[in-house]
Every structure is written in C-alpha cells, then in structure tokens.
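Appendix B. Raw example, untouched.
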Amino acid sequence: MLGKQAIIEFFQKNNIRNIFHLPGIHTLPLNDALEKQNNIKAFMGRHESGVISMADGYARASGNTGVVMVTPGPGLGNIVSGCMEAYSDDIPLLIIHIDTERKTTGKGILHELKEPENIFRYFTKKTFSIRDAGHIAPTLTEAYHTTLSGRKGPVVISIPYVLFEKEVPSTYHTYRASHIQKTRATGTERGAARLSGSIGSLEKILRKKRKVLMIGGKSLMLDGIQQTIERTCTVASIPFLTTTGGKGIIREDSPCSFGNVMKKGIVRDMIASADLVIAIGTRLRDVDAKRRGVKIRELVHIDIDDRWIGKNYPTRLSITGDLKEILDELSLVLKGKRFEWDLARLKNLQAVEEASLLKRSSAYAAIKLLRETIPEDTITVCDLNTPSYWAEYHFPVYYQNTFLMPRGISPIFYSLPASIGAKTGRPDRPCLALCGDGGIVPVIGELATLKKYDIPVVIFVHNNNSFGILEDVMTDRYERTGSMALNSPDFVKLAQSFGVRAKRTKTLKGLRTILLQDITWDEPYLIEFVQPVSPPPWKA
C-alpha cells in the first residue's frame, strides 16, 4: 500500500471516525484518500486555532482521543496555544503534522521550519518524526497509545507529505503491544504492593479524624465510579466537592454533593473546619484553589502520578496509581465509619444561601435560568466570560463530561469551536456554547463550519460590550471605567448571514421564552443576551 493508505488503515483499525483539519497544498493527497472513505468524517474548520479546540472539545465530551491534521509552517504554529491547553489539562490529542521534506530544508521551500517539533517540547507528552514510509503505521499506533496511557495528553507526529505516495514495504511491522503489556503487568504487581502500604497509612490517619471532606478532580471522571462515591460519602457522612474539571463526577443534586470547591459561604466554612481533606484526581491548581481562598489544614492527595502533588499544599500522605482501584480500596477503608457532618442540614443552608444570591446578582439569575430550561444532560461548553465563571461556581452538573471549560492555561476563544467538537463526539446530547462578546468575535468564522456540517449547537452570546471581567478589575484597582469597552457587531445579523437562526433579548423573561419556545436542539441557533457588566462570582 501507499503511505496515505497506511494512515487510512490506521484510522480504520483504531476506530477513528472523526478528524478535524484545515487543508493546505501538502495535505491534498491525504484529503483525497479521506474523501473516498464512507466511515471517516473529516471536519474542515476555518482556522487552526479553532480546529484544535474542536478536537479538544471532542476529546473531553467523548473520552476518546481527538485527532487534528495540520499543514507545516503557519498551520502548525496556529495550534500552539491549543496544544498548551490540552497538555496542561490532560486532554488526549493526536496532532498529525503534515511535514515538508526535511532534506530540502534550508533552501527556502514552502513553509519550511527546522525541527518544528521542538516548538512543542515542553507541552506535549512526546513528539515523533517519521522518515520512512514503513514507519508510518507503527509510529502512529505508538503515538495514539501515548495520548491515552497514564496521564492523558497531546502528542505531535510529523509525517513528510512526500511519503503519501511512497510504497510501504509489505514486511513492515505493526507496533507490538506485548512489551507494553509486560511492562504493565510488572508495574501492576509493584503498584499493588505500594497501594497496600499507602492504604494502611491512610487507615491510621483516619482513626482520630472527626470531619473528613473529599475533593474530586477531572481525572476522577471515570465510568462506573458514581455509585461508589455517592454510597461511600453518603453513608460515611463525607461532603463531596469538585474542582471545575470535576463537575459532574457525581450528580450535584446528590445528598453528599456541595458543588465547586471555590464557592464561598457554607463550602468555605466546611473546608475550614475539616480536619482532613482527601483530594482525588485533581491538581489543586493555584488559580482554582489557593488563589480562591481554599485553605486546607491537612491533606491526603491521591492522583495518577506525582506531577502535581505537593505543589500548592503540604501533603500528609500521597498515593499514586490507578484511581479506580484506589477509590475501591478507599471505600473499603471508610466502610463502617461515620463522620460528624450533618449533610442534610448543610444542604438546606446552602439552598438558603443561593436563594439570597439570586436576589443580589443578575448574572447568577441568568445562569440559574439556563439550568432550569435546558435538558439536564446538555453539554455546556464554556469560555472565559462572566456567565461561564458564574456557571463554574453555581451551575449544577448531573452527568460526567457535560461541563467543559478550558482550565489548563485558561485560553479565551474556546467555546464556539470546542462545542462543534463536543457535539460531534456526543451527538446524542444537546450542546450549549457559553460565549462572551469578546471571546466569540475572533472565532466567529467557525459559524461557517457549524452550518456546513449542520451541527446543532445552541450558542449563547453574553453581550456586555466589554471584556467584562477585565473591566471589573480596572474599575476596582485603578478606578478607571470604560477602558475595556468593545464595539461589538450585531450578532443576530451576523449569525443570519451564515444561515444560522438567531434572536436577541435583554430580559430574563425574553431569554426564557427563546429557550422554551424557539430552541429545538436539532439545528444551529444563536441567542444574543444583552446584559450590563456585572461583578464576578468571587466578589459575591
């Protein structure tokens, strides 16, 4: 077979059915091969920064590796920030860089760069560079395996376009899993012995504790663990909190669930009075915890590896390994124990607290309305804007992988393209993109992608004609108003020019009417909600 056929065969063997790309002269032979496939959909975006966000949203919503195909030079350069986000937030991406012919580099060939993989040295799990057509299939398979093994993350693989039409030797070897399996088996035996000792240490720590609290992060987003957590925490009377990435690990209306660890009021008081916090599958990232006033007296930190352990909080005990196995062991240790929290009382106090908040914040009122009117399994894709921050704190989530917010390096311009990928990854679920007027304009061209493939995403544009969060900071710190004002377009007319239905409203009543009467969730739709700049949730 030819090199391009080896790539197609790799996609087929690994059940890769969705690819996100922006073509160029170097990719055309592979584009031609993809066009002949009935069971592989290649989504063509309008800018590489949007394309990689599509793959990111696809990976978060589906749990599978997102596959990106980019051209050399500027195409590769345009995905840098998206790759940074994926690496920092453990998102599995396979980035296929269609490379130039390296032996001609230095002559001024189109899009040439010397060793372009080095750009990604510090924010990928690994980079690969292929030099021979016979290495295409085994290297692709190794790269794909790397995205999903251990702590997930992005991988870049460079394939020179000249190999597309080269014959792959019939004797080429596919990547063998035997070595991996053998290594895993040995590692499993060692891990079991280490886990046994760690659990024994945890049992000793727990003996004198009266108020234990648990925090779950995104790495705990695992199938089949919801019942274990809910049963363990409810029976043992342990409040369960999450980071932003962990929203939806269990239903937030569960008796033991109290939402995001960043909340103030009851949640802040609970953390302060806890004599032990068990954090599982979370980085406890500074900006999401310490900076938000989360103070932990004593910590047991459990994670996939030790990359984030001890970075922000002193750790009494650290445990690393398979989180599902550790959680099962933890549930056995906690069996028969009951701590001093009155979960029902705390739930009632939190309800009163949020009812009071509704009277004080119009931004919270909008988020509450959204939650009341959209299906509970809706995938909500956030950007960095006022409604998204309020949702991060106070938007209840009921299903895993249905609240997507870029909290790796926290890039803006994420929500619209990522929602395209998210809906592609989970076509069975409704999808809502929470955008700000500042964040959507640079990626507005992806409305063309949305319409081209008829992807039924509902886009909520919160228009305060400003970079609202920055405006609030400028006012507080420097007593300067209006410096972050924006000249926003008419989003309704703009959407309609792409063939997307749209409406504008300035009131909660109008918003409710649109959501309940106009939205069908089976076609692209844009809602422009005009609201003045309002304080962020951390000031409420």
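End of appendix B.
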